[in-house]
Specification:
The radius of gyration is 19 Å and the shape is elongated. It has ten helices and no strands. It is mostly helical. The two termini are 33 Å apart. Helix 1 packs across helix 2 and helix 4 packs antiparallel against helix 5 (90-104). It folds into two domains: 1-59, Homeodomain-like (Arc Repressor Mutant, subunit A), CATH 1.10.10; 65-227, Tetracycline Repressor, domain 2 (Orthogonal Bundle).
Length: 236
């Protein structure tokens, strides 16, 4: 089953729209030079708008990257909605979840390499693990919950799976950034193999005879995870 959408490019929309033109121009410059090396003045000049107009739509470069995060999340959620619910198989749904994510960011390896370095700075507004991107993190969890819809998993298992898949996405995005194989084939192959294992473990965890032995362990892990100060919160 093909999951790749190679024709997709993460552009910013209609270039005739001032906001989108600024966003598209800025992202292009970020991809080439990195976020820190580009100034708002350079962005406004390249976009053909006044500096004040650029600041009107985006108060800072961080606001531009935040808009990129939102664009990626919105596009990913739409693709998952269109494709994942067509199959009842959880293993296939999870693969669609991951592969469509990489289809969306296919052309942004250099940009992601630039902004992912902020992950180690909890207070930075662009940290993918910090409070500044909590809204995007929560929306990512919603997309994962969509994949698990109607799967009838035990509540504790589903909660752990949601956060586990989110964390796994972060790990594979890092691998994706460094993957030089065509269409990031190595990363995608690793994803399929990993998710097949996850599906097998899930089948065991829901087996009636094993459930009484596994449930206390899951409850303890869930308690530990809920204390974490990194990444999204399991608040429901």
């Amino acid at each position: 089953m093909p999951y790749h959408l190679n024709m997709f490019k993460s552009d910013a929309g209609d270039p005739s729209n001032t906001r989108n033109r600024i966003l598209s121009t800025a992202l292009g410059m970020f991809r080439e030079r990195g976020v820190e090396a580009v100034t708002m003045r350079e962005i406004s000049k390249a976009a053909g708008v006044a500096l004040g107009s650029a600041y009107y739509y985006f108060p800072s470069k961080e606001a531009i990257v935040s808009a990129y995060y939102e664009h990626v999340q919105d596009t990913h959620h739409r693709l998952v909605t269109e494709q994942a619910l067509k199959t009842p198989l959880l293993s296939e749904r999870m693969k669609i979840l991951f592969h469509t994510k990489f289809d969306v960011i296919q052309h942004d390896k250099k940009l992601l390499g630039t902004i992912f370095k902020y992950a180690g700075e909890p207070e930075h507004p662009l940290s993918v693990l910090g409070a500044g991107t909590m809204n995007i993190q929560e929306r990512g969890l919603e997309t994962i919950r969509l994949v698990l819809k109607d799967q009838k998993l035990p509540e504790d298992t589903e909660k752990l799976l949601v956060l586990g898949l989110w964390a796994l996405q972060m790990v594979f995005i890092m691998h994706f950034i460094y993957d030089e194989t065509e269409n990031q084939h190595t990363t995608r192959e690793m994803i399929d193999q990993t998710l097949d294992l996850v599906a097998q473990v899930l089948n065991l965890s829901t087996f009636p005879m094993l459930r009484p032995m596994i449930q206390p362990f899951l409850e303890q892990v869930l308690t530990i995870v809920q204390k974490s100060q990194v990444g999204p919160r399991l608040n429901r």
